[in-house]
């Protein structure tokens, strides 16, 4: 293993002789990974059932020539888009290194294999953030590139860059493995431990926390709520407060409702606003119901009744509590299932909260 790879925790493989592989200092590679992750993160919530992916193309000195992401299922993958941009800018002759958040695909799906697109370019050095968990692809892209003489470096499990690349695809990896959507619960709790807003209101958190809530909605593919919340709040549950470049918004709205209490006019209004509204009468089936509809990541915005049921059944993947103190100060706590990479990592303001243990303090639900 070369010194470059040892520094990054990567597993380098020597290229076959005669290829123009390039050894770059790790800080330049890390900078390219950050750029690729940031670009991919702009499309989280737009790509389902595909994963968000970013790609940076560098010259032999480590300068970034172009950065691109996968925008939407059925459109160009990140690598193909980055290569096209590079060609359009007349920079292809300088292209030497590709830095990709996810293993390049090696199969022909809705688009052609990215491994072949890379091999058709001058690039002979590829950095991969994480191997593709999709069983149709697993291993194929890296093997194909290596067989053709590329130096392929796969990041080891430790370090910021690898964690960010994994966080991008956590819901996709979970869905690929289990067929179930990743469930993020978001709850607001006041200083007295109550989730119930003051009379006449539907929310009580700060402007900044509400904006965070809408950014979470924008990044997810579905919203889950309960019949009690629908009856009490007639919530909109759509994306407001934040602009968007890709029209991202959850398209599915799942309402947990065993007794058929959801009013027909609220449902009709939600449908008119573009939601595919589904009723769930058994929460045990909720993650699979969402997964079967192509939902990778769902945000649960429900009251204490449904949250208590989800918690008792262990039906959550990460849990964000926005605690509002009596003086209005707010505290963010994130509980994460042990051994998983929360996609909430993609929200920098939550960074300091991600170490919260899976403990009682994170689950006040009353
Ligand atoms: N602070 C916050 O973050 C939030 C606060 N709220 C507040 O919460 C209050 C409403 O709370 P609540 O009445 O508890 O409403 P919920 O949104 O929690 O909905 C409760 C309903 O969920 C359904 N449900 C519960 N368990 C299951 C299950 N196992 N399978 C299927 N459905 C199930 C039940 O429907 P059924 O009765 O048919 O069995 C139950 O009545 C409102 O005041 C609202 O403003 C709401 C969202 C967020
Ligand atoms: N109370 C509360 C939240 N509650 C959630 O927001 C819903 C209102 O959404 P909308 O109708 O789209 O504005 C409400 O019914 C509930 O699901 N969210 C928060 O970020 N902070 C809060 O204090």
Structure description:
There is one protein chain. This protein is elongated. It folds into two domains: 3-170, Cytidine Deaminase, domain 2; 181-362, Dihydrofolate Reductase, subunit A (3-Layer(aba) Sandwich), CATH 3.40.430. The chain contains eleven helices and twelve strands. Strand 8 (252-256), helix 9 (264-272) and strand 9 (276-280) form a beta-alpha-beta unit. It starts with a helix and ends in a 30-residue tail after the last strand. Helix 2 packs across helix 6. The strands form two sheets. It has a seven-stranded mixed sheet, with helices on both faces. It has a five-stranded mixed sheet with strand order 2-1-3-4-5, with helices on both faces. Helix content is 30%, strand content 19%. The protein has 366 residues and is of the alpha/beta class. The structure holds NADPH dihydro-nicotinamide-adenine-dinucleotide phosphate and the ligand Nc1c(N[C@@H]2O[C@H](COP(=O)(O)O)[C@@H](O)[C@H]2O)[nH]c(=O)[nH]c1=O. NADPH dihydro-nicotinamide-adenine-dinucleotide phosphate binds next to strand 6, strand 7, helix 8 and helix 11. In the C-terminal section; belongs to the HTP reductase family. Pathway: Cofactor biosynthesis; riboflavin biosynthesis; 5-amino-6-(D-ribitylamino)uracil from GTP: step 2/4; Cofactor biosynthesis; riboflavin biosynthesis; 5-amino-6-(D-ribitylamino)uracil from GTP: step 3/4. It comes from Gluconacetobacter takamatsuzukensis.
